[in-house]
Amino acid sequence: MSIEVGQLAPDFTLLASNGEMVSLSDFRGKYVILYFYPKDMTPGCTTEACDFRDYHARFSDLNVVILGVSTDPIERHQKFIEKYELPFLLLSDTEHEVAEKYGVWKLKKNFGKEYMGIERSTFVIDKEGKLLKEWRNVKVKGHVEEALEYINNFVNAR
Fold first, then answer.
1. Of 157, 114, 113, 146, which is closest to residue 33 (Cα–Cα)?
2. What tens digit of pLDDT does each residue of 46-67 get?
3. CATH code for the part of the protein at 27-156
4. How far apart are the C-alpha atoms of 69 and 98, rounded to whole Å?
5. DSSP string, 28-40
6. How far apart are CA 32 and CA 39, in angstroms?
7. Which residues contact 59 (CB under 8 A, 6 or more apart)?
């Protein structure tokens, strides 16, 4: 399954790094960056999380909430947050149900091995819960800046 720009983003409820159950609909009235990443503590995922951390204040100024999602258990998310001082919630999608709803649970290949995993992807969701923009198969370098620029332009055009 996949969603299209302009459609209502699929709602979900997942355990968050703060120990609470969090739903996408909890953030109505704010813009949401929902980013899916393969695994805590890996080089690309750490760079991406730290980029979101470094630009967190600028996103907040635009009324944007950042939510990171991977299949890692909540304990690993908490260690990742502590180690890199991440100021946003990480959500644990251990059964990859939300990743499947968003069409990011894919067959991947690495060193000749095939396996299922999360394809790095980012979704921008508006205040009413509709999908504004998506980036799939994201390359980390420059991605967070591109997402910030997109939201900044969108918000300031209104």
1. 146
2. 999 999 999 999 999 999 999 9
3. 3.40.30.10
4. 9
5. TTSEEEEEE-S-T
6. 21
7. 33, 52, 66, 148, 151
pLDDT score for 4: 85
State CA 77 to chain mean position distance: 13
- Report, as ranges of residue numbers, the positions in the chain whose pLDDT lies below 70: 1-2
Per-residue pLDDT, 110: 81
Where are the domains positioned within the chain? 27-156
| Catalytic residue (one of 45, 66, 144, 148) | 45
And the tokens for 68?
């990171």
Q: Alpha carbon of 75 to those of 30, 40, 85, 140, 151: distances in Å?
A: 27, 11, 15, 24, 31
In a 10 Å sphere around its CB, with 0-12 CB exposed, 13-18 middle and 19+ buried, how is residue 5 labelled?
Answer: exposed
Distance CA 87, CA 15 (A): 17
- Report the predicted TM-score, pTM, of the whole model to 2 decimal places: 0.95
Share of the chain above pLDDT 70, in %: 99
Q: Respond yes or no: is residue 50 known to be catalytic.
A: no
Q: What is the pLDDT of residue 1?
A: 53
